[in-house]
Amino acid sequence: MTMENESKKKLRIKNESDDEDDKPLSKVKKPPILDDNEDSEDEPLSSKSNKRKGSPATSSSSKKAKKESKIKKETTPTPNGNAKIRKEKSPKLEDNKEAVDEDDEDKDDGEEEDDGTYKWWEEEDEDGSIKWKTLEHKGVLFPPEYETLPSHVKLYYDGKPVDLPPAAEEVAGFFAALIETDHGKNPVFQKNFFNDFLEVLKESGGANVRIEDFEKCDFTKMFAYFELKKEEKKSMTSAEKKAIKAEKDKVEEPYKICLLNGRKEQVGNFRVEPPGLFRGRGAHPKTGKLKKRIGPKDITLNLGKECPVPPLPAGQKWGEIRHDNTVSWLAMWRENVLGGVKYVRFAANSSLKGMSDFKKFEKARQLKDHIEAIRKDYKRLLKDRVMLNRQIATATYLIDVFALRAGGEKSDEEADTVGCCSLRFEHVTLSPPNTVIFDFLGKDSIRFYQEVQVDLQVFKNLKLFKKSPKVPGDDLFDRLDPSILNKFFQKYMPGLTAKVFRTYNASKTMQDQLDLIPNEGTVNEKVLKFNAANRTVAILCNHQRTVSKGHETAVQKINDKIKELIWQKIRCKRMMLMIEPSLKKKKSAFFEEIDDLTKEDQLTIHKLIIERETNKYHSKFKRENDKKKEENEDLLPESVLLDNLKKVDELKKEYEKELKSGKPVLPANMTIEKLEQQIEKFEQRITNTELQLKDKEDNSQVALSTSKINYIDPRLSVMFCKKYDVPIEKVFTKTLREKFLWAIESVDENWRF
DNA sequence: CGGGTGACTTAGCAGAGGGTAC
DNA sequence: GTACCCTCTGCTAAGTCACCCG
């Protein structure tokens, strides 16, 4: 990995001198065309290539760009009434009001009277940089102290039991719990864990046995102990479980809510992350490293000046107390593995989060008014003679059409994943005339694989960007990074960045898909259609999930079910012919399928049925006898079971005969009409089951939730529900309903994205 | 003026919890 | 009532983007 990165860097440097190639392009005097309908601001675009070539700096672009966007803000016809849903003078709500909270259900009869919940979306919006006036909360909840294992549970080294100091035992335990998982089997994870483990062991005084080789460590006893504990927990009575839950709730309670400007709001992650082993995604070089325990001294609290500082046990102190009302976090600490900052924030249903969510979608909606111009421009710029402009245009195309992420640069301390700007030579394969194969790992090391047709000029450009001397490891967009791209976007619309395209295209796609759904059928059918629309969006955004363990068998089961239904149907048709042989000629199409199932197929189905029946009687017998045993009654004689099994045996014989003759036994009183009805029923069930199967298959690798939570404007879902008479619970879970309350309350069936 | 980093959104997964079939 | 399965929630890693500082 290091090697790769090394070579990447080298190649990049080499690239700079390869300017030769594009000189014909970049030398051209002509200013970037983008500006032709703007006044005359070409600098921001050429800034990076200027830098690369070390040309005399242009008078700082960023300030200008800022100024410019400000000017634009004023001149651009503001996207009108979109910004506010409803306006209201809404009083400041000086305290006392917060006495009412959770019981909003009963309260919302008179919604003009906004007691209960705070309807921020009906308020006048300020500039947004001040997040709060007062903020009061109880701080954070720390994980419990480590409890040492019973003395008989130990790590074994080279066959010998090891006495570990508690600190080291804890770390060993972190690993022991994972030995059966992919992480535990990952050599990088093992190595990183082991290094940190040895360190902790040394610091905590060492063990009775000298430990130096990971391979000689035996964690199985510890693992078994954890498994045992899990079992114990599972087999607790529900009363015990309830008691534990109640205790947990009680401890959590104070932390759950805070006071924001005097109003109650929920806190999100008030729990400090417990120590453990870092579980990086994909091929993360630091995966397995020890994530250290965080104490009060590591925590910075953020709250109002006048608010009481949450107390701590004697002798302990908070790391720092801040009163920063320009940020929306309540507490913060630095984490040791990546050196990043972790925050305690408001919950998703809080007004602050809701507001910024609303703004996000409004911004995306605003893009509607500019997208045409942007597309027109980038199509033109694809042929621009300035290399940078071509790269900007091509990247914009990829972001717009394939919903790629911006793709910022990453260090080699992280997994090697890419987005648009960081795409490399090897991630794109070109096949004339215009087929492109994308194959790379994106965010969370999720594979992006797509074989697509692109605009001819895009194809040519990609070819140009791959031109020798570029080789695998080189950046495709060697002039580009997200900040250049975003500066380009800001020219069209203030606040427009690469990620807005994803939101826009996702919501736009959803709107278009919903428009195609006819208002008919049952609620469940409509929900299925809704999910299908959702799935289109999820696919666009490449939201995946790993196929669940049981998926394969579940699919097999459904397939068996379908086969059996088909068999039943065919059987009915055969019976019809037994009653009325002349039908075969009269309705030949109808009877076409009667020989579709092979003997083997039929036999398999028979076997399945027989097996099922046998099991049924066995378990019935057992169940009834268990009950009798418990009630001290006489047990059923074996003969009861045997009688039932005899019935199964007769059925089996019947099937055997049927298989030979091709003729089922005709039940008494059977008529053509009855059979027709049955066939219809079977056909219905077959269609339903097939739909169910398709849904399952289609969904097995696609995660719908991510787009529903982050990309699809919730007002679309609300609109759908109102328009199609679908209860909102069918598309939003309880948490989502809370998160999207602002959307649920503010739109009707005519709303459009 | 560009690299680092703070603050925020977006992401998949594990485990809890709740519903359903037997 | 139990086993199983699927959905939902909580968790925390991994992105994006703006701003700050040397």
TrEMBL record:
UniProt keywords (A-Z) are: Coiled coil, DNA-binding, Isomerase, Topoisomerase
Which stretches does UniProt call biased (Basic and acidic residues)?
1-16, 88-99
Source species: Wickerhamomyces pijperi (Yeast)
Top class in the EC scheme? isomerase
One GO molecular function term of this record is: DNA binding
Task: Return the annotated region ranges for Disordered.
Answer: 1-123
GO biological process terms, alphabetically, are: chromosome segregation; DNA replication; DNA topological change
SMART domains this protein is in?
Answer: TOPEUc
Q: By what name is this protein known?
A: DNA topoisomerase I
From which residue to which does any coiled coil extend?
Answer: 364-391, 665-699
As its record notes, the protein acts as a catalyst of: ATP-independent breakage of single-stranded DNA, followed by passage and rejoining
- A Pfam family it matches: Topo_C_assoc
Question: What Enzyme Commission number(s) does the record list for this chain?
Answer: 5.6.2.1
